[in-house]
Amino acid sequence: LRLLTLESALHDGCEFHELINITRGRKLPEEHRAQIWYICLGGGNKLNNFSQFDEIFDLPEQGTIRANCKTLVDKLGNDEDDKVPLVCDTESIFTYYCKSRHLKFDPSKGWSDILIPLLAVKMPRDHIYICFEEILEKYIPRETEKGSPIFHLIRLLLLYHDPELTTFLDSKKITPDLFCTLWIKSLFSSVCTLNEIMPLWDIYFQERDQFFIVFLVLVILMNARDQIISMLEQEQSREKIIETLTNIPTALNIEDIPDFCSLARYYALKTPNTFKKEFSTLIFGSVYMGNSESENFVGNLPLSQALCLPVSSQEILEITDMVEEAPDGIEQVGFFLVDCRPSEQYNAGHLPNAFHLDSNLMLQQPTSFQTAVQGLFMAQRQALASGTPGCGKHLCFIGSGREAEDQYVHMVVASFLQRKTQYVSLAKGGYQAFHSLLAHNLDGNLADHDSKKCIVCSPESESSKVSESGDYDSMIITNDPLNTPQDSLLNKFSSISTLFKSKSSEMKGKLVDYITNPNGSNTPVGRHVNPKDKGKLYKSPDVFSIQEDEDDTGRGREDEKNGLYELVDVSQFMKNSEIVHSFKCNQVRENGYMFSSHLLLTENLMYVIKEAEDRKNQGYITARRTLASIVKITSKKKHPDLITFKYGSTLPDGDITITDMDRFLIPNASEATKTIKELIMKLIEVEKT
Prior knowledge:
Layout: H1 2-11, H2 16-23, H3 33-40, H4 62-76, H5 80-101, H6 111-120, H7 125-139, H8 149-161, H9 163-171, H10 181-186, H11 194-207, H12 212-223, H13 225-233, H14 238-247, H15 257-269, H16 274-283, E1 297-298, E2 301-302, E3 309-311, H17 313-321, E4 335-339, H18 343-346, E5 354-356, H19 360-364, H20 366-385, E6 394-398, H21 403-418, E7 424-427, H22 430-437, H23 442-445, H24 489-492, H25 496-501, H26 511-516, E8 545-548, H27 558-561, E9 566-569, H28 570-574, E10 581-588, E11 594-601, E12 605-611, E13 618-626, E14 630-635, E15 642-650, E16 656-665, H29 669-688
Parallel strand pairs: 3-7, 4-5, 4-6, 6-7, 8-14
Antiparallel strand pairs: 1-2, 9-13, 10-11, 10-16, 11-12, 12-13, 14-15, 15-16
Helix pairs in contact: 1-2, 3-11, 4-5, 4-6, 6-7, 8-9, 8-12, 12-15
């Protein structure tokens, strides 16, 4: 009956949505596959210029194209009489596409692998070209070379769903481009037989989702996680692991395809969708589409350095408003919002369903911060157990939306990722973005909103001031209100704050202070240098000054990028007679990650040793700095233990050239900076004499 309905619909020239109601994302009848693929790929709505091709084959690489076409047709196994017209058609398709797009034919692009299934279903020549063009420009990323955006996105998605597996792969420097490039370039046609590709493409084209490929990759990795982790724990070679990963799709058989695609849909439903809007034009599209520099950034970091998956405020609010059941009862994305702004900002306005975790606690009161984190997880468990609306399993962290402050939010997020916490994301634009979207009814949608103290309404208010230098523009408020239900967010989630403030017998009595609003009763450690005391700036390359941190971006570290570390026994290294001082610390990277480290000082050198996670009492020397190269030591007013060392030289006119920097969280940093200052002063005195 369904086949008759399908045949009738195809005969009547049905549209895509009518077709999907019949096929329902399943394997297609072989006799109708060519026609349905053509409809799914939008063939009926595309202008066909290929029919006007002049059949002139005069490209410089024409010989390469013809040889490639002959090899391609040989793979199909047709009779000799059928091969000649197929070679001609294939050469016409490649030649016209290269001419129309001003491209040079490159066999490594994998176009042949795309064309083989299209030829196998026996489409008309014009239809083959249209489908070939649509697949290349809609479903195949423009860039598939090492380090291309698609591979950074795959890693971010794997980090979101399985941070432990991501950490294992990162430890071996195994990036997605090392094992799944062929999968991506050919939609698996280069690694699977036609028997598997036909039903896979049946479902793929019915999905009409450019990013379906990344979820298929995710399924393969998640299903193979135990095997991968076992290989890593057995210390098998990196090359062996990459080879094993690369060959996983070859084991797929035709019976696996429905489950393979169903699992991909499952992960797609459990993933926020913001990345699809953010990165669609960056990753997919015609070669004519240029990449604007801003498209390759997540916040102020390039996609390759993104800390975690970004989520827009629009999507967060839309998901908060939805209380729908997912298909087949699958649980969809539900956010547990974590507001990491300072207490004074949180108290001047916040989303009513947001848990407060003051990022300042992480540096000023680490013990209180850990207690607050325990409270966060406890509150989330209680909210999930009671079915509280607006609370889900997915942690989404909210900053202020101001770059200087949000670096501490990034450190908080990084600490959760290092705990291997699943479903971690960051709200794009922070509080300012929510404020803009809810501007039509701020008092009804934001809890405790005080326009006189709100950092957006009153940029000059006390709560809006930050310790860093620099001015900050307030978010421009849009006049287009968000289409939300009549009930305000404040009314909808009025009971949630009560949940977050409830005591638990499992926690100490003072935990509630940190759950509701961790102001922190302890006085922050005093700054080791008075803000007015800038120190004397010597006109010599061998000097430094202590100033307020201006958030310079780190550069260099080529040794670290290339993995050129020296492994040492930390205790033995400290016993070296040349070591005069040592300080336990955490090195802080640009993306917020912190690593347990040691600063070791000689009379003229500073060693940075990062503790090896998998080797007890051992560490890697990640940097050897001459003390003479330190030109600035900076810190934050609110976080005096977060120290930045800036390296470079001082020019004769007094200008300072910064060539590199390191940032550390050092307990009792004043002692460390005082010691380093004294050592540098000794060097200066020696040079003078």
